[in-house]
Specification:
By secondary structure, chain A is α+β, with helices and mostly antiparallel strands. Chain A contains 6 helices and 6 strands. The longest helix of chain A is centred in the last third of the chain and has 28 residues, at 110-137. Classes of the chains: A alpha+beta (175), B mainly alpha (224).
Chain lengths: 175, 224
């Protein structure tokens, strides 16, 4: 799966915006949105929020977890634990990138948040690399990966699945 | 004054052939699930033609509404973006199916031929016609290019043996939607023993496709 396809899935998440226009209810195939009133916050999917922001029709409100103290706590917890800790959002990496690229003026301390999320990501990817290594070398047949996000799984998907399939073929031909 | 775009699609549910009435939102969710499952599964999955047809209906309905509205309407652009997104998922789904049909065409046709009466079909009528044409074209190509120059007792090719089967023992990532107990995990090497695991709802796992294949078709797990 392409990272842009993971981003496509992440864009379905809801985010709060404050529109500066008014529009009555929109009946999308995927659900109803609105009505939009200037100055009143409303939840919309990220793909719409980004489009409206680019046309300067709204302000984006950062999600609750996108806060410096909370992210610092999560980063420290992630560094302490051996296992994967629960994530702020199943799409934290994509949302951070999208919201900080398009709406950094609406998000306080954008640079610090970027650094913190990158730290969390690096720690998790390092843990993932270690556990992948032990999975392959001990020839396990099953793994539980509860707190992993789709983006993290996607980074090792191609390599891991191909390796495991090759090893299986080699093993079954020897027997 | 009726707004062409304020039609909330509720007339979709009046289609008498639908046995379980789904909201459009549920329909789109089902399409996305089918898309992900098809993308990550090593074999061709059951055909979801009702979902595909209903989604096409919704899309054409919405597009004809949009045609009637004047350009530059704020709502129209929002609807158009949504249509593009749904269209992408639908074409990606159909494309992965076609890729698998081309890759495993003799086995797909064999499975379709040997399925029981009441079982759901693997291929839609168009996909079936495509698979048969592909088979016939490949056969005639091989004959014209190489086989007719071979000695006469070597001029046939058994397609089922010539084309590799999908590898059902590939590993897949999955997320559990309904709790499952006692799923057997087979050992990789000879000194390991097989053991059972319980799959909790909402958890994610990495295991062989073969053991969980029936769970994918029943919708109890989702490939990710």
């Amino acid at each position: 799966m392409d990272p842009s396809e993971v981003e496509f899935l992440a864009e379905k998440e809801l985010v709060k915006i404050i529109p500066n226009f008014s529009l009555d209810k929109v009946f999308l195939i995927g659900g109803d949105l609105g009505p939009f009133n200037p100055g009143l916050p409303i939840d919309v999917p990220v793909w719409l929020a980004l489009n409206l922001k680019q046309r300067q029709k709204c302000r984006i409100i950062p999600p609750e977890w996108m806060d410096v103290e909370k992210l610092e706590e999560m980063r420290d917890l992630e560094r302490k634990e051996d296992m994967f800790t629960p994530v702020p959002s199943p799409y934290y990496m994509e949302l951070t990138k999208l919201l900080l690229n398009h709406a950094s003026d609406n998000i306080p301390k954008a640079d610090e948040i970027r650094t913190l999320v990158k730290d969390i990501w690096d720690t998790r990817i390092a843990k993932l690399r270690l556990s992948t290594d032990s999975f392959i070398s001990q020839q396990e047949a099953y793994a539980k990966l509860d707190n992993l996000t789709l983006m993290e799984i996607n980074t090792i998907r191609a390599f891991l699945l191909d390796t495991l399939n090759c090893m299986y073929k080699l093993r079954s031909n020897v027997q | 004054m009726s707004d062409a775009l304020s039609d909330d699609g509720s007339d979709f549910n009046q289609d008498g052939t639908q046995e379980d009435v789904m909201t459009p939102a549920e329909l789109i969710a089902k399409l996305e699930e089918a898309w992900l499952n098809e993308k990550f599964s090593p074999e061709l999955l059951e055909n979801k033609s009702e979902v595909v047809e209903c989604v096409m209906e919704q899309l054409t309905h919405m597009e004809s509404n949009l045609q009637r509205v004047k350009k530059g309407d704020a709502k129209a652009s929002i609807h158009r973006m949504e249509i593009d997104r749904i269209r992408y998922v639908l074409s990606s789904y159909l494309r992965s199916r076609l890729q698998k049909i081309e890759k495993y065409f003799p086995h797909v046709l064999e499975r379709e031929k040997s399925r029981g009466e009441g079982e759901p079909s693997l291929l839609s009528p168009e996909e079936f016609a495509f698979a048969k044409e592909y088979y016939a074209n490949t056969e005639s190509y091989l004959k014209a290019v190489a086989l007719k120059r071979m000695p006469s007792n070597l001029q046939t090719v058994d397609m089922l043996k010539a084309v590799p089967e999908p590898c059902l023992d590939s590993f897949v990532f999955l997320r559990v939607k309904e709790r499952q107990e006692n799923i057997l995990v087979e050992p990789e090497t000879e000194d390991q023993r097989e053991y059972v695991v319980d799959l909790e709802e909402g958890s994610q796992h990495l295991m062989r496709y073969r053991t969980i294949a029936p769970l994918v078709s029943s919708g109890a797990v989702q490939l990710i």
